[in-house]
Design brief:
By secondary structure, the protein is an alpha+beta fold. It is built from ten helices and 17 strands. Helices cover 32% and strands 18% of the residues. The strands form four sheets. The protein has a six-stranded mixed beta sheet, with helices on both faces. Strands 7, 8, 9, 10 and 17 form a five-stranded mixed beta sheet that branches.
Length: 429
């Protein structure tokens, strides 16, 4: 695999790049990786727990194996094709419709079973002669940030253990996720497409934002752009104001209140999650409306220094911890407070940089609990070409906080910035 840096591609709505698709060669690559893993670990099969929600941090290992609708319980014996236990009949209808259209599917109709309850999983394992085997499980290990104690529900797993007391179940989520991180050429093409969509969303927000415009109008412009480009379930964290510090869904999405009206001097703080073809890019779009507070300009420059430090360090053979510390250094040197990790892994999640913790230093921050410092996860992981990371350096001084960044791949030489557009403070108008 040969990777090289590329310039950002223009993303106007009149530009329709060809849509990348996965081949059966990509399916075989993934399935062979799984079979080799099972062979090396002495496993007879894998169980892969999937959830149907493709939110900001999707737990969608199942669709990596199936190239299909997420939310199935997958059983992958080492010596045969995977079996997908689907929750409801609409999954069967979807599969049948895809066959009727002539889509190139990775699983046959005979590879699907209806029902993904604990007793149905147990019956499937018994039917396959795996009732007393060694089985790796993906879903029991922590999966940050959404599932710090695993994803599989306790009643479900308790029932499986009681019904199969002779089975040797092993947690393999972290180990296998590590093998998934170096992306193939086909996956990188999908990532580039996701990044184009995310950049188009950011540009739509910049074009729409102005004093007197509703937050909802800016949000809608980005979402409409994403759907027009054919992406699945895009998400945006969104907050605006003269000194916004929140990072999550817009408050009017979960609390009955009107969207805020933008004003001169506002900063719109957003995080775009562009999700296409099972791969995700992230875009930290910070948008200034008119003349913002000088401290916003200052912390944005420091955040950009953190981003540049990450680019200078993200090299094949370096460790994730080395990159993490490099991206923390400019912010820590000025005593800044941080919103979250300066960098974390993508596709899948798992690697997170150290977070210093402490009090929120903005006005009123002393009223809230003190966040404990959190060490880096996978700090000793050696970087390989094709690994994808969310660069999201933040810098807060006093009341003013800015987060910048985008998605960056480890290259053969220099890192590959998929969306450098959002690595700087954007300006509306």
């Amino acid at each position: 695999m040969t990777l090289s840096p590329t310039q950002r591609i223009s993303t106007g709505l009149d530009t329709r790049p060809s849509v990348p698709v996965y081949s059966l060669a990509e399916r075989d690559r993934r399935w062979n990786l799984a079979r080799s893993f099972m062979e090396d670990e002495g496993l007879d099969a894998l169980i892969v727990f999937g959830e149907g929600d493709a939110g900001p941090a999707p737990f969608a290992f199942d669709s990596w194996f199936t190239n299909d609708r997420p939310g199935v319980l997958l059983v992958f014996p080492r010596d045969r094709t995977p079996i997908a236990l689907v929750p409801i009949p609409t999954f069967l209808f979807d599969h049948r419709e895809a066959m009727h259209r002539g889509d190139e599917l990775w699983l046959a109709a005979t590879d699907l079973r209806l029902g993904r309850q604990s007793h149905q999983l147990v019956q499937t394992l018994k039917d396959l002669g795996l009732g007393n085997g060694a089985i790796g499980v993906m879903g029991l290990d922590p999966y940050l940030p959404a599932h710090p104690e695993g994803r599989i529900p306790y009643p479900f797993w308790h029932a499986v253990l009681n019904l199969l007391p002779g089975t040797d179940f092993r947690n393999v989520g972290h180990a296998f996720a590590r093998l998934m991180m170096p992306l193939s050429e086909e996956e990188i093409a999908v990532m580039r497409h996701a990044a184009r969509i995310g950049d188009a969303m950011a540009e739509a927000m910049v074009t729409t934002a102005a004093p007197g415009v509703s937050e909802a109008d800016v949000y809608a412009a980005a979402m409409a752009t994403a759907y027009r480009h054919g992406t699945l379930a895009p998400h945006i964290h969104f907050c605006s104001g003269p000194a916004p510090s929140a990072s999550g869904q817009p408050a009017w999405g979960y609390r009955p209140q009107p969207p805020r009206i933008l004003a001169e001097g506002d900063l719109i703080a957003t995080e775009i999650f562009s999700y296409f073809g099972g791969r995700q890019t992230q875009h930290q779009a910070a948008i200034a409306i008119g003349e913002v507070h000088p401290m916003i300009e200052h912390v944005a420059r420091i955040a950009n220094e953190c981003y540049a430090a990450g680019l200078a360090t993200l090299r094949t053979g370096a460790t994730f911890g080395e990159v993490s510390e490099a991206m923390l250094a400019p912010a820590e040197a000025v005593g800044a407070w941080l919103r979250g990790p300066q960098i974390h892994g993508l596709n899948p999640y798992g690697a997170f940089s150290r977070i210093p913790g402490g009090l929120i230093q903005a006005e009123g921050g002393d009223l809230y609990p003190i966040a404990a410092p959190r060490p880096a996860t996978l700090a000793d992981m050696t970087l390989e070409p094709g690994m994808s990371f969310a660069f999201e350096p933040s810098c807060g001084i006093g009341d003013h906080m800015v987060t910048l960044g985008g998605t960056v791949l480890v290259g053969e030489g220099d890192p590959i910035e998929l969306n450098p557009l959002t690595a700087k403070l954007l300006r509306a108008g």
